[in-house]
Design a protein that fits this description.
By secondary structure, the protein is α+β, with helices and mostly antiparallel strands. The protein contains eight helices and five strands. Helix 2 packs across helix 8 (192-200), helix 3 (64-76) packs across helix 4 (81-90) and helix 4 packs across helix 8 (192-200). The longest helix is centred in the first third of the chain and has 16 residues, at 45-60. The protein starts with 9 loop residues before the first helix and ends with a helix.
Length: 201
């Protein structure tokens, strides 16, 4: 039974530990300690590939059907399929909002988008999976800027490192997509080749 108002981080931390990722990737400042004495059983090739896919899905908060759709899109694009896949995930509006420091986590960014706090080119967009394009301007809605919660988020993330494919004007809380992300912009450990191998079977 879920307790009202209590924010239970335990399942998230457990999931991070199971997938072998740092909670900081999700915007949670709590490291899961690894016990070096705990020997892991040798995983099968399939299990290793599946783990990478689950990791990517969990980090970006994407469900299986949508994730497969991204893979299919990536495989039809020019270039390396795995890198295309990561680029599509990075181009999600909720991820961009998180990357800009407009939210503390991708989950919070998703809520901000759903609740209409974010605009693209001055128009409110409430679809977290919206794919941003080069030249588009992402901003916090004028009405939402006065919110105490939003002010706290911006204050906390004032020193956030913004990826080079995004250009943020902190004064007017507007950001421009100046390029698409590169493989080197991914700041967590993921082997996208394993995901491609899994789907290629």
């Amino acid at each position: 039974r879920k307790r009202a108002m209590a924010k239970n981080m335990q399942p998230i931390l457990k999931r991070c530990k199971a997938l072998g990722i740092s909670p900081s990737v999700l915007g949670i400042n709590k490291e899961t300690r690894r016990n070096p004495k705990q020997g892991r059983r040798k995983q099968s090739e399939y299990a290793i590939q599946l783990n990478e896919k689950q990791k990517a899905k969990f980090i970006y908060g994407v469900l299986e059907k949508q994730f497969r759709h991204y893979y299919e899109m990536a495989s039809k694009m020019e270039g390396v399929t795995g890198e295309n896949l990561l680029r599509l995930l990075e181009r999600r509006l909720d991820n961009v909002v998180y990357r800009l420091g407009f939210a503390n986590s991708r989950r919070e960014a998703r809520q901000m988008v759903c609740h209409g706090h974010i605009t693209v080119n001055g128009k409110r967009v409430d679809i977290p999976s919206y794919q941003v394009s080069i030249g588009e301007v992402i901003s916090i809605r004028e009405k939402s800027r006065g919110s105490e919660h939003v002010k706290q988020i911006l204050e906390k993330n004032a020193a956030t490192m913004i990826p080079k494919w995004l250009e943020l004007n902190r004064e007017n809380l507007e950001a421009k997509v100046v390029a698409f992300s590169e493989r080197s912009d991914i700041d967590f450990d993921i082997n996208e080749t394993l995901i491609v191998e899994l789907y290629s079977k």
